[in-house]
Amino acid sequence: MNTPVIATNALTKRYGPHAALTDVTLDIPAGRIVGLVGPNGAGKSTLLALAAGLIRPTAGTIDVLGNRPAADAAQLARVGFVAQDTPVYAQLTVADHLRLGEKLNPRWDAKLADERLRQTGLDPAKKAGRLSGGQKAQLALTLAAAKRPDLMIFDEPVAALDPLARRSFLQSLMEFVADMDVSVLLSSHLIADVERVCDHLVILAESRVQVAGEIDDLTAAHHRIVGPRGALDQLPPGVDVVAADHTDRQTTLIVHNTAGAPLDLPGAEPIGLEDMVLTYLHRAEGLAAPILQETAR
């Protein structure tokens, strides 16, 4: 059995009285592009910082590639991390960044880095502070990939990019994954981007994991069911209600079928990834999901 790329058990991180993460238990398989989705303040950046070894848990455990995060130099070399806003050194040139990367990373792939500069059109002599947002993102991606890591971690790297730059960055990311056999953990609040590039999903809200798994499996297991009021009070075993909306005449449910067998109920229809994510986020915040209310009208 392959070692999970990330495994946590009751992982908790607090900042004073504030809980950034609470009892997070995850087992993420290797070889996936994992989308970490949730609203601002959900704990996404905290989880990524814990995985990168930048901070330590308050309680619980986290293993990355079978070891404690940032346990030693060898472990650090196996993880590439790109923080929010794809930070680079404004006064250093693009070439300076590559030379620095080569000195700091024992697995540095200079050929890959040079090829990426040519493909993206980055000028080696240009200072990073004069690059556009998309160019900075491409430089950060090149630096992370040329480490030849086993895991690449991205904290909302495309949030500030325009649509063309975002598409270019995600295309480059998919190419790297295909060529390098690397696992990726990518946080984002852009569900369309997650749907385009990711095959595994973790939904975080209110500091807790709401649901996690392969995207195809999750979307296949979530359904909207519409029926007369009272007709949906008894559901088969393994069919869990995620959200419910009632009118005088009608009930609308979003359910998660964990039974394994296909859901065979009148009025049941599959829902898309965006509706599924929004339902869990609204539930975590104690709100009625708009998709349910729209269906019921």
Automatic annotation (TrEMBL):
Keywords per UniProt: ATP-binding, Nucleotide-binding, Transport
UniProt KW Lipoprotein keyword: no
GO molecular-function term, one example from the UniProt record: ATP binding
ABC transporter domain residues: 6-231
Gene3D superfamilies listed in its UniProt record: P-loop containing nucleotide triphosphate hydrolases
Signal peptide residue numbers: none
UniProt keyword Nucleotide-binding, yes or no: yes
Pfam family, one: ABC_tran
InterPro entries in alphabetical order: AAA+_ATPase (IPR003593), ABC_transporter-like_ATP-bd (IPR003439), P-loop_NTPase (IPR027417)
PANTHER family named in the record: ABC TRANSPORTER, ATP-BINDING PROTEIN (PTHR43335)
Family recorded in the similarity comment: Belongs to the ABC transporter superfamily.
UniProt-recorded name of the protein: ABC-2 type transport system ATP-binding protein
Organism: Glycomyces artemisiae
